[in-house]
């Protein structure tokens, strides 16, 4: 058995001008904490994307994109605050 996740499905389905669904499913070597199965999934329904923003806990805030390096630095700064 592989020790890595295996992608089973990755789809972006356009449902309208500014509307789409993203569906991703992986099988994982061991159950994800809190799950009774060996799947990891991400499902999203997006209407008119929000643009640059970030989530810190339950707070969603606009994000001013400067560069990839700054984005990654800001991400790790946010992680240390959780």
Short description:
The protein is an alpha+beta fold and 82 residues long. Helices cover 17% and strands 45% of the residues.
List keywords for this structure.
single chain, 82 residues, alpha+beta, 2 domains, three-stranded antiparallel beta sheet, 45% strand
Question: Could you please describe the fold and organization of this structure?
Answer:
The strands form 2 sheets. The chain has a 3-stranded antiparallel beta sheet with strand order 1-2-3, with no helix packed on it. It has one helix spanning 68-81; strands spanning 6-16, 19-27, 39-47, 53-56, 59-62. The protein has 1 helix and 5 strands. The protein folds into 2 domains: 1-49, no CATH class; 50-82, no CATH class. By secondary structure, it is of the alpha+beta class.
Task: Trace the largest sheet across and list its strands.
Answer: 1-2-3
Mean pLDDT, to the nearest integer, reads 92
User: How far from one another are the termini?
Assistant: 34 Å
Most strands sheet: 3 strands, antiparallel
- Give the topology string: H per helix, E per strand: EEEEEH
Structural class: alpha+beta
Low-pLDDT segments, ≥5 res: none
Strand composition percent: over 45%
The general outline is extended
Using the CA coordinates, give the radius of gyration: 16 Å
Count of discrete alpha- or pi-helical segments spanning 4 or more residues = 1
Strand runs, count: 5
Query: How many separate domains make up the residues?
Result: 2
Helix content: 10-25%
């Amino acid at each position: 058995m592989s020790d890595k996740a295996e992608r089973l499905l990755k789809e972006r389905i356009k449902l309208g001008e500014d509307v789409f669904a993203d569906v991703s499913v992986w099988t994982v070597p061991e159950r994800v904490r809190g799950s009774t199965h060996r799947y990891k999934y991400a499902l999203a329904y997006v209407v008119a994307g929000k643009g640059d923003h970030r989530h810190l806990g339950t707070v969603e805030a606009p994000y001013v994109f400067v560069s990839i390096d700054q984005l990654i630095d800001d991400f790790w700064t946010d992680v240390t605050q959780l």
